[in-house]
Amino acid sequence: MTILSLRTDKPEAEIGLFDSQKRLIYEAWQADRKLADTIHQKINEVLNKSSKTLDDIQGIVVFKGPGSFTGLRIGITVVNALAYSYGIPIVTRSGQDWLETGIQDLLAGQDDKTAVPEYGAPAKTTKPRR
User: Is 130 within a domain?
Assistant: First the structure.
């Protein structure tokens, strides 16, 4: 099973590609405020380095938080779109062992259907002036 992994909760984003539990490639990059501009490029780079295409991905594991509101929203939106459009399972996990647990759960047939972020605190919003 070819698995794409993604973590976007902090300024340094992480992406990986696995053949079941065997790591094919795993990279981190300084995404910070350019995550929306670089995430698709990084997905394509990882796939190209592994001689894979989006059609080869059979599952997705994503870090759900807690973490940066914007980072989590961008990353999770991208993987939800991929999972939905390609009809592949997606699992969301948190904690230090998020990746190992996520891969094991995915290989066991679990599918969260839709990734939902956990921010760790309510969003800080300001009241309208009027």
Answer: no
Query: Which pTM does this prediction carry?
Result: 0.90
Report the C-alpha gap between 66 and 11 in whole angstroms.
13
For the chain, count helices (H), then strands (E): 3, 5
User: Based on the structure, what is the number of domains in the chain?
Assistant: 1
> Please, what is the Cα angle at 50 between 104 and 96, to 5 degrees?
35
User: Do the domain assignments include residue 28?
Assistant: yes
pLDDT tens for 82-125 read 999 999 999 999 999 999 999 999 999 999 999 999 988 876 77
Q: What's the pLDDT tens digit per position in 63-87?
A: 999 998 899 999 999 999 999 999 9
Report the CATH number at residue 21.
3.30.420.40
